[in-house]
Amino acid sequence: xxxxxxxxxxxxxxxxxxxxxxxxxxxxxxxxxxxxxxxxxxxxxxxxxxxxxxxxxxxxxxxxxxxxxxxxxxxxxxxxxxxxxxxxxxxxxxxxxxxxxxxxxxxxxxxxxxxxxxxxxxxxxxxxxxxxxxxxxxxxxxxxxxxxxxxxxxxxxxxxxxxxxxxxxxxxxxxxxxxxxxxxxxxxxxxxxxxxxxxxxxxxxxxxxxxxxxxxxxxxxxxxxxxxxxxxxxxxxxxxxxxxxxxxxxxxxxxxxxxxxxxxxxxxxxxxxxxxxxxxxxxxxxxxxxxxxxxxxxxxxxxxxxxxxxxxxxxxxxxxxxxxxxxxxxxxxxxxxxxxxxxxxxxxxxxxxxxxxxxxxxxxxxxxxxxxxxxxxxxxxxxxxxxxxxxxxxxxxxxxxxxxxxxxxxxxxxxxxxxxxxxxxxxxxxxxxxxxxxxxxxxxxxxxxxxxxxxxxxxxxxxxxxxxxxxxxxxxxxxxxxxxxxxxxxxxxxxxxxxxxxxxxxxxxxxxxxxxxxxxx
Length: 521
Ligand code: ADP
Ligand code: ZN
Fold this sequence. Notes:
The chain is of the alpha/beta class. The chain has helices at residues 9-17, 26-34, 51-60, 71-83, 97-108, 129-134, 163-169, 184-193, 221-231, 244-256, 270-281, 315-322, 340-351, 356-374, 379-386, 399-403, 411-423, 430-437, 443-449, 463-475, 493-501; strands at 39-42, 63-67, 88-90, 114-117, 138-143, 175-179, 200-203, 211-217, 236-240, 261-264, 287-290, 303-308, 332-338, 407-409, 479-482, 488-491, 506-508. It has 21 helices and 17 strands.
């Protein structure tokens, strides 16, 4: 059903949003929606999805319904719209009955252009919203974070499936579904589960060229973090931790260092969370230490860095979280601390899931995340390939790209480390191997291994050097992990061949500083 245009999109962009021109696909998307076409938008975080339905809402008259997963975000979006002179409201359970009545009456009088709701609101209660919607002039439905409808996505929300029923009721109203992350299975699911009618797809490039990606060993992560933050003095950033406890500890440590930080996790009261978030957004506090509960939908353009103290569960999450950096297009840093132990912990968490199919999918995603961390190819190339995009050449703006041409001859120490592992019958983890290599005076180790020719041959170098080397050898495919209960290291065929042929071990060793910025690198 074609819509009547009351003005033109360009003017609305300028008059209501204050922007001089459209970005990327925005204009084409708005045109598609304006023709009454079901539309699916895949655009990275910060790409500018919101105006793709907000401008049509202004153009169309009548009501645009926006379905969004998080009640907590609606208020900010609605406030921003009202500030821009676009009448908008949200309905949720935190409002009193009379407040809700007031809003519905405003809608009936045609005084509100955008209504934000969470999907559960559609069919719940005595007078479900879907009945009310039938009484108003519903012109457009926007489904934000549309990947939530898919079981294959990383953030499945069963209540999103109900949107399909809404679609059936409003078969002549155009729907626009938007997401920042969707692999191939998820994409297919979005169209199917929402019941969209031969939707037109708009897939933007996922490249965020201003973000420098780095992955570094988790060992001494607090020291490395402090060095990194020292480099980012006065910058605003987010530090993600896996658990609430880690959030509290990290925030406390940083605070003790005199940094401007606040914690954010689901264990804090709503008031505190809101307050901390606001202080961060207003730049009154520079650093937010948070679980992944923080950040969805937050519109803060000058976030200069995002740190992951632990490996995220999947590339989608990593991409979305790092995508919160550099929305203003200026150089920004994404730093991830990787340890094999974290990957194992996350794998165990998945094993506890009752839904086998789901945990298999998530395990596959976890494996890809781990492979990303251990990969020696360009990080950006890996990410873009993951999202089905052909990446041109190496990006020159990630740690692996920086390290190319930075290979060092590590032949002798590699031979030492590898033969120690071999002499120990490949039965131990890296920490133990290093103790033997450095000739530990522990009675247990002396007794068991003093007779070995390799005992103590590495005592001239610090423990950290050997651990770093071990991790590098693993990342480069010379060592593999074995053992189920305790990770032990074994030599790969590649390592045996290299040792036999007496070839050199050229390895990309850590740079002096792990945290040089994009601009200075
Ligand atoms: P997304 O939902 O895709 O993460 P948003 O819609 O929140 O992104 O937009 C990200 C930022 O870009 C916001 O600050 C928004 O105001 C800004 N923005 C959107 N479109 C434009 C444009 N055409 N020109 C300039 N800035 C824009
Ligand atoms: Zn690169």
